[in-house]
Amino acid sequence: MDQSQSTPNPPSRRKQADRRQESETKILDTAETIFAANGFNGTTMHEVAKAAGADTALLRYYFTDKDGLFDAVLQRRSHEVNAIRLTALDAYEEAMGDAMTLEGIIEAFTRPAFRLIAADEGWQNYAAIVAYINSSRGALREVMSANFDVASQRVITLMRRALPHADELEIYWGYHFFTGAFTFSIGQTGRIDVLSGGKVSSLDFEAICDRLIITLAAGIRELCARDPKIPIAEDIARRSAGA
């Protein structure tokens, strides 16, 4: 037997790895909180290091620069939520086949995320970061693509299967409004709290998810049911007139 394969790592090496893991986790947790509050541009490596009780040089050793730190913060949770989403979408497709509905697809994609966000402050910070990224242009758009395009393309594929006669462009527009409404809804802006005088809350993730499913499915279904041969401006004018 190869003795090197049966000999455990020395305790000092294990302790060193554990210390690094603890240090990275503390830094990532701290950075997540600050990025959620201040956005990418409003956050500095020095600020994160000070809040985490670490040296800026250590952050640069672990993550190279602020871009690397931001990517690490996002990837830490995006891998987990994407895996859960894809599992839910696969299970729904297997169970329903051609009988899939928009409601079911949207629920499979959004419900797992809402449950994670509702249960943990760290996930709430992560959700605020995702909302920020999805409303940004430039390099941050590439970050969104790198982390979420696989899951997004899976949803679009299922939408096509659920609406086989829909115009392809309307499927893409439908997903555009879907992802916009979803990411705004996980942003916890408090806007609806103010407008409703406290009757509803942007932190009531279960209520948001339930209503988002119904609203989005109805809107996308109606959009995809319209006759593509009729100019959309004409269609809107007819609907506005109550025809």
Give the topology:
Elements: H1 3-6, H2 11-38, H3 45-52, H4 56-63, H5 66-96, H6 102-119, H7 121-134, H8 139-162, H9 168-185, H10 191-195, H11 205-225, H12 232-240
Helix pairs in contact: 2-3, 2-5, 2-7, 3-4, 4-5, 5-6, 5-8, 6-7, 6-8, 6-11, 7-9, 8-9, 9-11
Give the overall form: elongated
Determine the fraction of residues in helical runs and give it as a percent range. Answer: over 70%
Whole-number average pLDDT?
93
How many E-type strands?
Answer: 0
**Derived structural class:** mainly alpha
The CATH class of the domain at 75-229 is identified as Mainly Alpha
Termini separation? 83 Å
Verbal overview:
The chain is an all-alpha fold. The chain has a domain at 75-229: Tetracycline Repressor, domain 2 (Orthogonal Bundle). 77% of the residues lie in helices and 0% in strands. Helix 4 crosses helix 5 and helix 6 crosses helix 8 (139-162). The protein is elongated.
List keywords for this structure.
77% helix, 243 residues, mainly alpha, Tetracycline Repressor, domain 2, single chain
Brief rundown of the structure:
The chain is mainly alpha-helical and 243 residues long.
